[in-house]
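ARCHIVE CARD
CATEGORY: sequence design from structure
SOURCE FIELD: tokenized fold
FIELD CONTENT:
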């Protein structure tokens, strides 16, 4: 990697370092998102796997918190560090497959993509998913150029670690199979033991996830793979939403240019070009799945994150067909729009650009929890409650982080989410509790089924300065009637 750095233009290296520092500052200055606060609970007790996703995000968070403390920066440290490693991997991969000009342009485009910018700050399963997808692509490029079969072992390693990150990374294997089977020139690899050893290694690395599912009635597999075919029926309402999200989160000019490049590479792949088939085979299986999924249900924008670096390469490839002046002008326009969009995201995350916030604004999740927690703690002490009860993972995670040195915060419902944590003390559960939840999620009917005493205490609000972000309803509950946690 040191050689890769020396080959890169100084302006690009300086930009990568500058963005790394910016990402670290924003990561440390902003509150956690709801998902991050939830995944932090995973990292408190690293396990074989978890209900929603494989375990890599929790393992990385645990290391980050050990290195930088139980702080927003500690929780996000791995995401910030990938903003240094990711561009180096992309540079090397594109340089192996094409040339330095396309490689440089690809890295610039990736740096300007708003979704990858967010992924360099916010720590979710997408962070390790994108990282190990990129490492597997790099190892495959090294194999393609060097013809050294030992690279299959590295490919298997990174593919397996990707499967410990997110189930989406199953499509890494799908892309490799497409590249192998579609081109007769690659068939000799099927006779090399390293290929099969790499595949076995990838499978062995998934054992923790399989074991967890065996121990928990296949709960995670049922949750994630159960989505397939369970949408609202055939509809076209989600497809424009999926395309629009890509146009915005990749930046419009980069997005359109990448689709142009993908089309050109697909045409070359149809003529059995190995390099083109490698890139296209790594994109189309997952992209095709999302296209089908969007015909019945919403595709969350972050799901496509592993494809963004490869699509940045497609954009770089597309501009290589233009003359130097046109290519340079279009690159400048694309980068200006992309970096401006990312800069606005940075500023808005630290301080809202608009006078009002609502829960549809993703950055609203990151604001006002410390002050809300202080209100909740005062109410708890005033009412004699010993613990905090909730009924959503987002409120649970955020209050647990804000009150980490205070009373236990326990979600009454969806207990499979917390199978990795020690069971709450039964004596404590029989003591009075303070139930708090978003007003629209408040469940007094559920409380009355579980507690003999349910006393409404009114509402509290979460603020960002003078701006009200969200309203919560509060109850004092006591005298459990039946199984409190379900």
């Amino acid at each position: 990697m040191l050689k890769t750095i020396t080959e890169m233009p100084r302006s690009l290296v300086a930009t990568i370092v500058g963005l790394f520092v910016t990402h670290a500052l924003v990561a440390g200055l902003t509150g956690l998102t709801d998902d991050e606060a939830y995944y932090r609970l995973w990292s408190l007790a690293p396990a074989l796997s978890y209900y929603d996703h494989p375990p890599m995000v929790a393992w990385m968070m645990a290391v980050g918190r050990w290195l930088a403390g139980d702080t927003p920066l500690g929780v996000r440290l791995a995401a910030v560090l990938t903003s240094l490693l990711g561009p180096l991997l992309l540079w090397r991969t594109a340089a192996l497959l094409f040339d330095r000009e396309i490689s440089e342009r690809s890295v610039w485009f990736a740096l300007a993509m708003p979704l990858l910018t967010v992924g360099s700050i916010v720590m979710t399963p997408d962070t390790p998913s994108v990282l190990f997808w990129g490492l597997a692509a790099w190892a495959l490029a090294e194999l393609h150029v060097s013809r050294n079969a030992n690279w299959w072992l590295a490919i298997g390693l990174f593919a397996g670690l990707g499967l410990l990150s997110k189930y989406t990374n199953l499509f890494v294997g799908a892309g490799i199979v497409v590249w192998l089977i579609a081109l007769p020139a690659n068939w000799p690899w099927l006779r090399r033991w390293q290929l099969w050893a790499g595949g076995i290694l990838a499978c062995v690395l998934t054992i923790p996830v399989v074991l967890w599912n065996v121990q928990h009635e296949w709960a995670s597999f049922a949750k994630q793979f159960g989505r397939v075919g369970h949408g609202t029926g055939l509809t076209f309402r989600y497809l424009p939403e999926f395309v629009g999200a890509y146009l915005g989160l990749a930046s419009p000019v980069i997005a359109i240019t990448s689709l142009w490049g993908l089309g050109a590479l697909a045409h070359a792949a149809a003529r059995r070009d190995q390099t083109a088939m490698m890139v296209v085979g790594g994109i189309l299986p997952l992209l095709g799945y999302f296209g089908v999924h969007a015909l019945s249900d919403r595709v969350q924008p972050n799901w496509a994150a592993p494809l963004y670096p490869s699509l940045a390469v497609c954009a770089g490839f597309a501009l290589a067909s233009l003359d130097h002046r046109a290519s340079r002008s279009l690159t400048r326009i694309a980068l200006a729009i992309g970096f401006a969009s990312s800069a606005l995201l940075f500023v808005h995350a630290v301080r809202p650009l608009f006078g009002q916030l609502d829960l549809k604004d993703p950055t609203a999740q990151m604001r006002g929890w410390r002050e809300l927690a202080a209100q909740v703690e005062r109410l708890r002490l005033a009412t004699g409650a010993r613990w905090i009860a909730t009924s959503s993972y987002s409120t649970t995670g955020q209050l647990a982080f804000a009150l980490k040195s205070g009373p236990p915060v326990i979600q009454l419902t969806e207990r499979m989410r917390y199978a990795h944590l020690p069971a709450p003390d039964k004596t404590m559960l029989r003591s009075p509790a303070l139930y708090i939840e978003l007003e629209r999620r408040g469940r007094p009917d559920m409380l009355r089924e579980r507690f003999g005493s349910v006393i409404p205490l009114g509402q509290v609000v979460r603020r960002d300065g003078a701006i009200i972000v969200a309203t919560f309803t509060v109850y004092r509950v006591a005298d459990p009637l039946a199984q409190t946690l379900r």
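CARD ANNOTATION: The mean pLDDT is 92. The beta strands are 387-390, 409-411, 433-438, 451-464, 467-480.
SHELF: design records, drawer C
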